[in-house]
Amino acid sequence: MRIGIDTKGGDKGIDEIIKGTFEAYNIQRFTPVFLGDTEKIKLKIDEFKYKFDDIDIIEAPEVITNEDDPTLAIRRKKNSTIVVGANLLSDNKIDALISSGSTGALLASSIFIVKRIEGIERTALSVFLPTAIGKTLLLDAGANMDCKPSYFLDFAIMGSIYLNKVLGINNPKVGLLNVGTEEGKGNKQSKEAFDILSKSNLNFIGNVEARDLISGVADVIVCDGFAGNIALKSFEGVAISLIRQMKSVFNNNLKTKISGLLVKSSLKEMLKQYDYRETGGAPLLGVKKPIFKAHGSSDALAYKNAIFQTIKFTENNVISEIEKKLAEGNINE
Amino acid sequence: MRIGIDTKGGDKGIDEIIKGTFEAYNIQRFTPVFLGDTEKIKLKIDEFKYKFDDIDIIEAPEVITNEDDPTLAIRRKKNSTIVVGANLLSDNKIDALISSGSTGALLASSIFIVKRIEGIERTALSVFLPTAIGKTLLLDAGANMDCKPSYFLDFAIMGSIYLNKVLGINNPKVGLLNVGTEEGKGNKQSKEAFDILSKSNLNFIGNVEARDLISGVADVIVCDGFAGNIALKSFEGVAISLIRQMKSVFNNNLKTKISGLLVKSSLKEMLKQYDYRETGGAPLLGVKKPIFKAHGSSDALAYKNAIFQTIKFTENNVISEIEKKLAEGNINE
After folding, report:
1. Is there a contact between B55 and B31 (Cβ–Cβ < 8 Å)?
2. What residues contact A94, with CB distance under 8 A and at least 6 apart?
3. A237 contacts in B (CB within 8 Å)?
4. I need a surface site. Which of A207, B60, B81, B316 has the fewest CB within 10 A?
5. Residues of A in contact with B234 (CB under 8 A)
6. How far is B189 from chain A (nearest CA, A)?
7. What's the ipTM?
């Protein structure tokens, strides 16, 4: 399997990306196809004394930043890592693409270069959230701001297949993110989406409140990209802030410092589930080829996990399963 | 000051409501006007041996539950605590109303019985969120599901005046809840709201991401009731779950139990800011009279604080300030 790896995205720089790739490579073989400045990549691999039996490096000197307009940028920056990667993917020269660069550019490339799966109206960003009993897949987590209720059905189908193929969950429970659990709650969009999902043959369990994102009541939770992004970032913000405050409490005085030493390992284990690096990446669902968005502040550990996730996604043919399901067309009961 | 107190709302029953009222009364004098079953209220007060110098009890035998349709219920259940309270408020027989009952019914009563302030298009539920440096007011936190962008300006004006009059914040910083900080981010609604807020003479600081709800970058954050509810409940859900998990870690083994004893008081102090009971209630902004929604699971402490908050809101003439500002009409620069 040839995996395109964008060495220019991300806040932590090329070092962590190459380190993470090598760590993954040592556990599970694949062909890394590094995208970026060829010389710089070679120098880094030499500097770290990494030995890859099988490797490819493709020159892509440009980078699309978060300040660029995504749709314009993918037309103008033809030599950017993301555009070069998307073209390789479209031409079957790589099997998957991972980037921690601009989500917008990745999304635009997925739509205009790699193209959407026949029958899917919108590409969605899907993110795993840690829950009390495992994890929940939230989509759309920020790709589509203004959604028609019909998109929610696509999101639910894609999320269900993803969980089934990658985590082995049989008939995943699908929830609709809403302001109350009762039918009839919410805005115009969510009421219409509720009707559409109710008529599908998915395992639709109804509305799910944002406070239950963390309780694990549903395996997949669907929403528009605006609400999904608000839910996700509120979740992340509170978790990060609370964990930081908690850690600082242990620094209060001698007594709390001793307390910190005694609880450290147990606390670390508990907090591991809130570490985005353990999950790695988020697939763009609805595209014809595997494209994974890694967190902007990914380090080597996050990269390693994003690669494992990408391999699993690709090996398990999630995309062809989605295509098959849509071709069958028996979505409604 | 006569404060109407709904003794039928809330999950914890009448005991906590009466206890909280008495605790508040012992610190700051006001006239409690209990709404509910007269005999039951009298019996409870006797049972607890509470002495009020000044008290009123109004018979209101019915209750509107969360299962009732709010608009229908306020027409049909004329003897419910909320409808009786709203009528007393409208007739100037009480100065403020507190309820931990159905938010929908409270909202419907505020619109159809107490009425909106002239010039305000929608009533908003405003909630304080704890931040790293104090607190942020979020509105609308769930009253209006489908909003026009123009409502956001009302929310921002009302929130700013509330913070100025109640917390003494000069020229409060107003943020727009959005998926990114840059101008041009978001859905159609938030882009239009951004334009409207930019043209106002409020201290508009631009877009605020949901992860910054907790960082205190803005004093007031405005959004529609759907997004506000999602943000708020995601925030609450994660905070509650993390705190619960953290506490359970201290029960792991002897070492962690000792650790827990050593850090207990410091941790308790830190966690106090995440306790909704410390804030008490959320005003319905945009109504002609003070109406406070107390949390559904309010106990005596939460009630006590909701009463203090209601007194402060009423004494500081927040509503007449909003009316004045709207009458002046110089909202745009």
Report:
1. yes
2. A2, A3, A4, A33, A85, A88
3. 209-215, 235
4. B316
5. 210-211, 213, 230-231, 234-235, 238
6. 9
7. 0.91
Q: What pLDDT, in 10s, does the model give residues B178-196?
A: 999 989 899 999 999 999 9
Assess contact for B124 and B137: CB atoms under 8 A: no
The Cα-based distances of B121 to A293, B151, B191 in angstroms read 41, 6, 19
| A133 Cβ under 8 Å from any chain B Cβ | no
Residues 186-215 (B) with a CB less than 8 A from some CB of A: 186-188, 190, 209-215
The nearest alpha carbon in chain B to A68 belongs to: B182
Question: Exposed, middle or buried: residue B252 (CB in 10 Å: 0-12, 13-18, 19+)?
Answer: middle
Question: Which CA distances in Å does A189 have to A151, A174, B256?
Answer: 11, 17, 48
Give the residue from chain A lying closest to B189, CA to CA: A146
- Proportion of chain A above pLDDT 70, given as a percent: 99
Q: Does the beta-carbon distance from A210 to B226 stay under 8 Å?
A: no
| The one-letter amino acid at B306 | A
With an 8 Å Cβ cutoff, are A227 and B232 in contact?
A: no
**What is the tens place of the pLDDT at every residue in A278-330?**
777 899 999 999 999 998 888 999 999 999 999 999 999 999 999 998 888 76
3-state secondary structure A8-56: CCCCCCHHHHHHHHHHHHHHCCCEEEEEECHHHHHHHHHHCCCCCCCCE
Q: What is the DSSP letter of A297?
A: T
Does the beta-carbon distance from A252 to B262 stay under 8 Å?
no
Q: Average pLDDT, stretch B204-213?
A: 96
Q: SS3 of A316, please?
A: coil
H-helix or E-strand containing A174?
Answer: strand A173-178
User: Does residue B139 contact residue B124 with C-beta atoms inside 8 Å?
Assistant: yes
* Cβ atoms of residues A153 and A196 within 8 Å: yes
Whether B277 has a pLDDT exceeding 80, the answer reads: no
pLDDT in tens, A41-69: 999 999 999 999 999 999 999 999 988 99
Q: Do B234 and A188 touch (CB under 8 A)?
A: no
